[in-house]
Amino acid sequence: MRLVLLLMFWGCFITFSLAQTLPASLEKKDLQDVVKIVRKIKDFEKLLFAAIPEKRHKILDSLENSEKEDIFKAAVLLQKILYEAKEVSDVKILARKILFYLGKHANPCLEIYFRARIAEELGLHHENQLSYAKQELSKLKEMTTQFACTNYEIYVLYLEYKLLQKEFRNDLALAKLLEAIDFYKKNNLQEDKEQLIKIISELVSFYFKTEEYKKIVEILREMLYTLNETESIERAVINLHNSLGLAYKRINNFPEAEKSFKKAIELAEKAKDSIWIAIPKGNLAEIYTETGKYDIAEQFLDEYISYSIKYKELGITVAGYIKMAKLFRLKKEFAKAEKNLHLADDFLQKHLESIRKSDFWHYINYHVRLNREYTEFYLAIKSFDKASEYLKKYDSFRDSLYKITLQEQIVDLEARHRVKEKEQENELLKATNEKQQSQIRNSQVFQWATIIIISLLLGLIFLGYKFWKKQKEYYKSLEDLDLFKNKLFSIISHDLRNYMSSLKGYVYLINNQEMTMRELKPLSEELAKNTEYTFGLLDNVLIWAKSQMQGQTLQLQTFEAKELVQKVIFEIGWFAKIKNIAINCHFQENLWVEVDFSIFLIALRNIISNAVKFSKPNGMIDIIVQKNNNYCDFIVKDYGIGIKPENLEKIRQEISFNELGTSLEKGTGLGLILIKSAVKDLKGQLFIESKLNEGTTVTISIPIVRNLNTNKI
Predict the structure, then answer these.
(1) Which GO molecular function annotations are given, in alphabetical order (predicted)?
(2) Which SS3 state, helix, strand or coil, does residue 682 take?
(3) pLDDT the model gives residue 26
(4) Which of 236, 422, 516, 621 has the fewest C-beta atoms under 10 angstroms from its C-beta?
């Protein structure tokens, strides 16, 4: 009964407070003061947000039907759009009513504020309304210029940022955020610090995703320094202190993180903001968990979970259960740890769609954190099969998270490429138009008009052909660059990432298990294979990427030929020993070549590695260095499985491909591309002879030089 009376009292208090936020009758001078009105609307929103969600509907209905000023009713309807409107048609009906109320006062600057908020709601939270929001953005830009509403351009910039972010054009969105901050400072908009705080919060969120934590610390310290104590009880500023604590925590500066979280709690307690008392307590609990202060950490996490459930903060609830599971695991109370893991899993599954729609990136991140804690839990209780199962799930979701970030970057690159193409098209049209006008002005002699026109046309056709040819070459280079980019992204995002994940998994299992030498042997063999593959892959990718960069010059030095071969054999000889392959070397003495050391060694290493890779176990490889007229021949001959005829054709056409070795060794498809590129740069020649099931002979011919400047390896 007490609880019911308390809720009734709270509902009445909120309704009364909201009714007083915007006065029933604003003076005429106040109607012209847009800043004052917008500030009152924002105060109105804060009080409304504090209301229990179930009470908001009744509060808004009662306020809409009251005898209030038209601007007050417009503010109420805006809250209905933000909190209650589910369908696009409902939003647009309410929007028309808002514009009707605002139209009575003919205040375009206030209209810009309302229309920007409505367009943001439609574009971000309703399907197929992005184009409508972009149209509104164009209109609002015109209005800010037409009616000189300079101070309210900040809302238009913020809207443009949110729409760019919705389209995954993150680089452009970041640029728009920074432009908004510069605009705020340039125009000294001190009366609307709340909007700046909102923009700073978005910037911080962006840098959290890119893991630039030191930037976050720098930005937030500067921002919080400018705020006075009376402003610091706002919820947005509490969030800034909490974000600063998270950034310090990510760079392992726990003392500063603890100070920031405690400051956020202090401000939230002053504001009597329950959910924001709990959030920094939940984050502070993680630090106490790491430092062994388990009792106070458990108390804070209880509050964190309780308030997140009460205020329907779904993602925070999942995070709370995961944090609690980790705490009990470290306390070795495994039954409680397992219970909290199941609670997190069940809650995430129950609210799957809501969490996914809210923020897909965080949805995947919750899965990453949950499966990582499951892995840690099962390792702690020595259930290795289960630990391995959840480690695979963890790797899978973490890979998905990386791909989402990578896809956003690719979409952003493509968007910028399209913008660049459009700019080039416009420049081309402009240049063509100027040429045509110049031709018309110069054809004034009627007697020679026909001859001049024909000559000009022929000249234009010729120039057009040359221009078309040049454009064709330009777009071909862009396509080659795009193929290179996609191949590089594919290798890094898939092969390298997967193998590094596998390496991490093997090392993790070895470090955390008690295993016999017999159990460790297959793991160590797999670890050796994966390490060699990953090293070769990374080396090839880096050298290939370096060779694609414009302006890259060779660092030519003189070396004795046999020393180059011996260097490579020393590096990869162990790989041949694994397969029990004998390497026979036949060197002609005193042969000197001028090469770029790193590029030539990569080429030679790839040739010998391929020979080992495609040789059968217990086989043999011959390496011959001999003089051939004015060239030094490096000959690598194996007696393995040979190269298929179709693959030889791909080599001639410089098309990459990938084949498994005789012991199922994997490759990147870059080796032969690197070899051909290196030999070409060194003014040498490459010859490949191969017969299926008989073996392959690869010869690199490099010009011989006199031994003037000897370099020892």
Answers:
(1) phosphorelay sensor kinase activity
(2) coil
(3) 35
(4) 516
**Rounded to whole angstroms, how far apart are CA atoms 314 and 349?**
11
Q: Cα angle at 676 between 675 and 679, to 5 degrees?
A: 85
Of 524, 531, 690, 546, give the one whose Cα is nearest residue 607. Answer: 690
Measured in whole angstroms, the distance separating CA 429 from the mean position of its chain's CA atoms is 36
- Token pair listed for 349: 């599954």
**Residue located via tokens 């490949």:** 688
Six-digit token string for 346? 């069940």
Q: Distance between CA 44 and CA 14 in Å, rounded?
A: 10
- Pairing, β 620-628 against β 582-587: parallel
Amino acid symbol at 11: G
Show the tokens assigned to 220: 């937030």
Distance CA 211, CA 220 (A): 15
Count of CA atoms in the C-beta half-sphere (13 A) of 374:
22
Q: What is the pTM of this model?
A: 0.47
Q: How far is CA 538 from the centre of its chain?
A: 21
User: How much is the pLDDT for 532?
Assistant: 63
Q: Can you name the residues that pair with 625 across neighbouring β-strands?
A: 587, 634
User: For residue 549, what pLDDT is reported?
Assistant: 57
pLDDT-flagged residues of the chain (< 50): 1-32, 52, 229-230, 232-233, 419, 494, 550-551, 712-713
pLDDT single digits (tens) 203-251: 888 888 788 899 999 988 888 887 754 454 467 788 889 999 999 988 9
At 418, the amino acid letter reads R
- DSSP of 599-630, one letter per residue? HHHHHHHHHHHHHHHTSPTT-EEEEEEEEETT
Single-letter residue type at 261: F
DSSP helix, strand, coil percent of the chain (3-state; round to 5): 75, 5, 20
3 state SS for 238-258: HHHHHHHHHHHHHCCCHHHHH
Of the CA atoms within 13 Å of residue 53, those in its CB half-sphere come to 8
pLDDT tens digits for range 10-57: 344 434 444 444 433 333 333 345 555 655 565 555 555 555 455 555
The residues pairing with 587 across neighbouring beta strands, listed in sequence order, are 625
CB atoms within 10 A of CB 474: 11
The conformational region for residue 368 under phi > 0 = left, psi -120 to 50 = alpha, else beta, is alpha
Largest CA distance in the chain: 106
Query: Do 240 and 197 form a contact (C-beta atoms < 8 A)?
Result: yes
Q: Which one, of 151, 64, 59, 66, lies nearest residue 109 by Cα?
A: 151
Which secondary-structure segment (H or E) carries 12? helix 2-21
What separation in angstroms does the CA of 331 have from each of 240, 369, 547?
A: 32, 19, 53
